[in-house]
Design a protein that fits this description.
The protein is mainly α and 140 residues long. Helices cover 55% and strands 0% of the residues. The chain has helices at residues 19-30, 35-45, 52-80, 85-91, 94-100, 125-135. Helix 2 runs antiparallel to helix 3 (52-80).
Length: 140
Amino acid sequence: MWNYEKRLQYPVKITQTNPKIAQIILSQFGGPDGELGASLRYFSQRYTMPYNEVIGTLTDIATEEFAHMEIVCAIVHQLTRNLTPEQLEKSGFDKYYVDHTLALWPQAASGTPWSATTFQSKGDPITDLHEDMAAEGAIV
């Protein structure tokens, strides 16, 4: 189905930890408009799209959003690896750490867990495409 290359399209090479920034970037993984929701949004909406060209485009975009998740996860991992207990507590990342250690878990910067309620798939092409543009930050 896909040809997966086992390398990041845009390599991530972060040398300094920064758990405060990681908390913000984590929202790009599992926040309301993050990559997890985006990938599932496009995959879900493709099935009721009446135009074959757009179905293919939605599939391509969904696949690209999955690739973005991989990049975001690499960023968060590198920002949080080898943190000391003192760094965890000082940064406020300790609350996340208690439940997930340094594993990647989809949540917003506020700490709200990812939920499928953050995106829509209505079956109406115009409604769905407006949802997509809004989530991508475009002016509708």
